[in-house]
Amino acid sequence: MKSLRTDRLVLQPVSADDFPDLCALWADPEVTRFISGQPMSSEDVWLRLLRDIGHWHSLGYGNWSIRTHDGTLAGVVGLFDYKRLLEPPFDAPEIGWAVAPAFHGKGIASEAVGAALQSADRDYGFARTVCMISDGNLPSIKLASRMGFNRYGEGLYKGQNVTLYERLLPPQ
Question: What angle do CA 65, 170, 153 make, to 5 degrees?
Fold first, then answer.
């Protein structure tokens, strides 16, 4: 399991030690607004955390906690294959992110997503990564565009319309 460092951040594979901070993150309605539509209970956060820990052990990649150098949780970012019941289904590793409101507008998401994509390119050689973003989530749409993602379609996930984006591995 690989940790990543940037100028301001430490990305660590999620662990049980992250649970209290993740409970606070996922309980925030602003964080979950475009992801699940509602805050998560501690039980749901625990199940999500166990899924993400298992993802690292099964596939060798997954979600990282995003922490500032002083240890404050700023959010999560990850590369994963959740086998989503999405129409049309994903056919490449997915990237996703969530950042606590206190860190919005500070470039934290860009820095973390950039580090995750560099890892995707360098460490895993994914030829393509994908993501889905709710239509109203303009900050994430702008971030995806800055990171090289292009819209390639629309999908339906859990009864909600989402826009699908892809990023091809940059030429070497």
Answer: 75
**Residue 171 predicted with pLDDT over 80:** no
Count of beta carbons in the 10 Å neighbourhood of residue 167: 20
Say what the pTM is: 0.94
CA distance 78 to 66: 10
> CA 29, CA 100: separation in Å to the nearest integer?
10
8: phi then psi, degrees, rounded to nearest 5: -115, -10
18: burial class by Cβ within 10 Å (0-12, 13-18, 19+)? buried
Q: Are 62 and 8 in contact (CB under 8 A)?
A: no
Closest to 81 in 3D by CA, of 98, 112, 58: 58
Q: How many residues are there in the chain?
A: 172
Please determine, for residue 159, whether its predicted confidence score (pLDDT) is greater than 90.
no
Residue 80 neighbours by CB distance under 10 Å:
18
CA atoms within 13 A on the CB side of 54: 8
